[in-house]
Design brief:
Elements: H1 57-67, E1 74-77, H2 79-91, E2 98-101, H3 108-116, E3 120-122, E4 126-127, E5 132-133, H4 136-146, E6 152-158, H5 170-180, E7 185-189, E8 211-216, E9 229-232, H6 235-244, H7 252-261, H8 264-289, E10 294-297, E11 304-309, H9 312-321, E12 327-328, E13 338-342, H10 346-357
Parallel strand pairs: 2-3, 2-6, 6-7, 7-8
Antiparallel strand pairs: 1-9, 4-5, 8-9, 10-11, 11-13, 12-13
Length: 365
């Protein structure tokens, strides 16, 4: 299957904006981009008076090696949010082609669909008591049923899922890809993959052209403030996304930081830190489960825990009073009593547990 068959017809051969750095020209004196010839007094030596490369070759090569893909199968964006937005615009015509999501899930999928005017199809995750399950067969049925109205062209599978923490087995991803062949693109968002024991969907990229994998340097690589996301996909789709992307998506300081963050030594440290977070996650999960105020702690493959409380409002206020800020999930479908708790340092986690320890349980007067 040619993945371009799933792309909007009007974008398949679109070349995009030809920026000054896209031309590939080389020279000694740069007078083609209306830049200042002098660096800013605030410039620490990065040459910020000049526009950066749209896709810096050195960083692209280093990330390609990190993820085990060819450089041409990789696109760098301003966080994964931009990758999600580009995919929505490339695949879905307004009011004619739909996006499928599995709530409760990361809200930017629905936001990008709404901005594009793409109808939203929802197939809720299944709460099985201690884990939320992605219902593969229900998703495939929903895609089949959508054909008569607005056919689903883009499916988001967050793994590990935000906010539930559940990861999607590789066999389930493969089942989805086979069922979606020729119909839709499956986007597996692996923002938290470094904390999971599940194999990455990257292993399937060579076999399925309708697969996209999102990764990020915001979490395990500790560069949330640098805003650098990675879209891994068939090179033909990457070219389409590059054409509709902004001409200069990456700031030079962020690129310099990212090059250091994914160097072999820094990448090894990121793995060690992820291991520490996983150990803390299991310790904190056990401690939370023993608290009277806690109804349920969901199994997690990420760096957070989804927790149901006897009184989520009281828990939220107790944490704020102690200076601990967590994510309120009560507006999400099926999570009226839930908070999402990021795993911090051991000291931060102890402060969280201490703030919750004095809260009464569900049967307390």
């Amino acid at each position: 299957m040619n993945v371009l068959d799933l792309v909007r017809a009007d974008l398949r051969g679109f070349g995009g904006y030809g920026s000054a750095r896209k031309t590939g020209l080389t020279g000694r004196i740069w007078l083609n981009a209306n830049e200042s010839p002098w660096p800013s007094p605030a410039d620490p030596g990065l040459g910020l008076n000049r526009y950066p490369e749209p896709q810096p070759a050195a960083l692209r090569a280093r990330l390609a090696a990190l993820y085990g893909v060819a450089p041409e199968a990789l696109l760098m964006t301003r966080g994964s949010d931009e990758g999600i937005d580009l995919l929505t615009r490339a695949l879905c015509r307004a009011e004619r082609e739909a996006v499928l999501v599995t709530p409760p899930v990361f809200g930017m999928y629905a936001v990008s669909a709404r901005v594009q005017g793409a109808p939203l199809v929802e197939v809720p995750l299944v709460d099985e008591g201690g884990v939320f399950r992605f219902d593969v067969e229900a998703v495939l049925r929903a895609v089949e049923l959508s054909v008569a109205k607005a056919p689903v062209k883009l499916i988001h599978a967050c793994s590990p899922a935000n906010p539930t923490g559940s990861a999607l087995p590789l066999a389930a991803i493969e089942r989805l890809l086979v069922g979606l062949a020729g119909r839709a693109v499956l986007v597996v968002d692996e923002a938290y993959a470094e904390y999971s024991t599940q194999p990455s969907a990257i292993a399937l990229l060579g076999r399925f052209t309708n697969l996209v994998v999102l990764r990020t340097l915001s979490k395990a690589y500790a560069l949330a403030g640098a805003r650098l996301g990675i879209t891994l996909a068939d090179p033909a789709l990457v070219r389409v996304l590059s054409a509709i992307a902004p001409p200069y998506p990456l700031a030079a300081p962020a690129v310099a930081l990212a090059l250091e963050a994914v160097s072999p030594a820094a990448a090894d440290e990121a793995k060690r830190r992820a291991g520490r977070i996983v150990a803390e996650r299991e310790r904190v999960a056990a401690a939370l489960a023993a608290l009277p105020a806690v109804r349920r702690v969901y199994a997690s493959d990420a760096n957070y825990l989804l927790v149901r409380f006897a009184d989520a409002e009281a828990a939220f206020r107790a944490l704020l009073a102690a200076g601990v800020v967590v994510r309120d999930q009560r507006a999400q479908p099926g999570l009226h009593d839930a908070l999402r708790l990021t795993i911090g340092s051991p000291e931060e986690n102890e402060a969280l547990l201490a703030a919750l320890a004095a809260l009464p349980g569900v049967d307390s007067p």
